[in-house]
Design a protein that fits this description.
CATH class of the largest domain: Alpha Beta
Mean pLDDT: 76
Low-confidence stretches: 1-15, 177-184, 221-230, 232-248, 250-264
Protein name: VWFA domain-containing protein
Strand content: 5-15%
CATH topology of the largest domain: Rossmann fold
Organism: Methyloceanibacter marginalis
Distance between the termini: 25 Å
Pfam family, one: VWA_2
InterPro entries: CLCR, VWF_A, vWFA_dom_sf
Number of strands: 6
Number of domains: 2
CATH superfamily of the largest domain: von Willebrand factor, type A domain
Helix content: 25-40%
Order of helices and strands: EHEEHHEHEHEHHH
Amino acid sequence: MWQVVPGLAQDSQFSPCAEDAVLVFDASGSMSGNGWGYGSESAHNVSRIDRVRYALGKVLPTVTRHRRVGLVTYGPTRTPSLFNQCDNIELDLPPTPNAAAQIMASVESLVPAGGTPLTRAVEQAAEMLDFESEPGLIVLLTDGEDTCGGSPCQVGKELHAAAAQLTIHVIGLRVKGLSWTGESNIVETQCLAEQNEGLYLTPENTDDLIDALEMTLGCPKISRLMEDQKSHIEASSGCTWSHPSLCAMIEKTQPRGLRSKPKG
């Protein structure tokens, strides 16, 4: 279990965020499944989408007082003209002040269905942020890989090359025990974050998810890690910098070949 970073949940510690943000929300059919993977908390009691709703309900009211947040969803068909499950991407809300109630209303109305066009959803979120001329932040929340032919890593490189200043964080649900996600698919979505100076986090319970959302959406933002901090993660197994819980989460999710080796 990793700990909440001190101060992120307290209004007195917040300052206005310079970057607008868009939450890219996976509402594909697999989000109706239970738990976080084999051996996870309450694996058979509550659906993943309900756990995410709960976590967002805890985080958004504070975050949206200090950051303009928008919403892109994918999965279920809500536009009658969209019959292909890979076309089911909805631009629900542009970055808006005090958007918690609007975002929660949209998320609460979703019934998980359809595929996972996460790469195109991220591209559309970037366009919503006017990423070529304005700084922006995307938080992708997904429980699987792209099932619609997209290449998250390649698109991550293209967005980075064209962006004024874009950060993309990826929160991967159910990575542990996800039968169709192998190491290569984890690397693909992790690459999307790394190409855009973001974090790749894999919460294993609801408390972890709340922490991950606070880390990625909250203010004061830590959306851009210093290069020496990233190097420290790769070079050492004893992460001792200012956010040890975050360091431990990143370290835990590295594919075997990328993990740091213990000293001695």
